[in-house]
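Hey team,

Filing this mostly as a record. A colleague (T.K.) asked me to run one chain through the structure pipeline before their review meeting, and I want the input and output archived in the tracker in case anyone asks later how it was produced. No errors, nothing strange. Just documentation.

Input sequence:
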Amino acid sequence: MDDIWLAPIGEPLDLAVTAGLPPVPLPDQCHVEQLIWHGDPLTGPLRAHVTARSTDTVTLRIGAAGRIVADVRIRRGPARTPRPHALLDPHPEPGVAYTRLFPVTKDVTTDHVPDAEPVLSTPSMIAFMEDTAADILRARFAPSTASLGTWIGVRHTGPARTGQTVTVTAVLAETRGRRYLFDVRATVDGHEIGAGQVAQILISVAR
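Output structure:
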């Protein structure tokens, strides 16, 4: 696996890809920093190639039968130890959830498809999800604290039309120091229209 630090981006890697989690054997002195699963099962022969690289990280794309299975970001060195902070009071534990309702108004729809009824745009749905996730943190902000969105991994799978109401639920999935990862889901009348994950990071704002 050491050749992932040298392999040309985009070219297939000559390595054994396993069917476990993570779906690649790790080089020595490395750890998985992020695993993004794209929904397909680990079946059949798996292939991998490098999609991005920096001094300390490599992102591998795992595929099978012409479909993307997962993206794995590997970082040199041991996994980071979460650092305590005093930016929230009290500190939320994984599993904390919050739900909000969002009306679908004209300003959050897209009408770029000719002869089609306007529906909720994907950026608007993501904004609803990020705002709902951030509300879990906002209720606990210590003085001079704010949060920023840092990552989005969301599928938009169904429509929401003008006049309907979107129900968005965010559940805190993981905490890493000042970074908070949320599972998010959007429904209309009980039918899922989108789901995935978003991340927020806490920052200290100077007064």
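Quick notes for T.K.: The domain at 97-204 is CATH 3.10.129.10 (Thiol Ester Dehydrase; Chain A). The chain has two domains: 2-76, 97-204.
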